[in-house]
Design goal:
Rossmann fold, 7 strands, 5 helices, five-stranded parallel sheet, two-stranded antiparallel sheet, 33% helix, alpha/beta
């Protein structure tokens, strides 16, 4: 399905100028015209506070503030105008521990470099078509990390220590 993205705003946080320009061009081909740019997470958070973008696309490795720190700040800082903003994290790191670290920081989607326009479009479409519920606990705030139904699962609770609740409750 093709979407009309002309009404949304996107913040790109990337310290590599060629990648920043490439992303801007790809987003423009999708019809996105309101694009903000920042060179690191510190600048990115200032742009978030000023413009409250609909989507944030950030690189992981930047100085002085990286994409993971930016994500945590968007999710937890009282000055954040939208703690629920979808965040797409771009990275060349694909090890499971890195993916887990990013997920646990509160990112919405993970985009592995190198990627193409179709990969980015799919992540944005995923945000539109299947918005994720948010979870708040003592040590986490962000999109629900549970994406897949557990094989062989037959009841309303996924964990042995979950309290009993409505039999209609479903976790994905």
């Amino acid at each position: 399905m093709a979407y009309n993205f002309d009404a949304i705003s996107v913040l790109i946080v990337e310290d590599n100028e060629p990648m920043l320009s490439l992303l801007e061009g790809i987003l423009q081909t999708f019809g996105i015209t309101k694009i903000f740019k920042a060179r690191n997470g510190e600048e990115g958070f200032e742009v978030v506070k000023r413009h409250n973008p609909d989507i944030i696309i950030t690189d992981w490795m930047m100085r002085p503030v990286d994409g993971i720190s930016l994500t945590r700040r968007v999710r937890n800082d009282p000055g954040s105008p939208n703690q629920f903003a979808p965040i797409i994290l771009m990275t060349g790191f694909t090890e499971q521990r890195r993916v887990t670290q990013a997920r646990d920081a509160g990112i919405t989607e993970f985009l592995v470099k190198p990627f193409n326009a179709r990969d980015l479009y799919r992540r944005i479409s995923q945000i539109v078509e299947r918005p994720r519920q948010f979870v708040r606990s003592e040590d986490f705030f962000g999109p629900d990390r549970r994406r897949k139904a557990k094989e062989g699962y037959k009841g309303p609770q996924r964990r042995a220590d979950d309290e009993a609740s409505s039999s209609e409750q479903v976790y994905i």
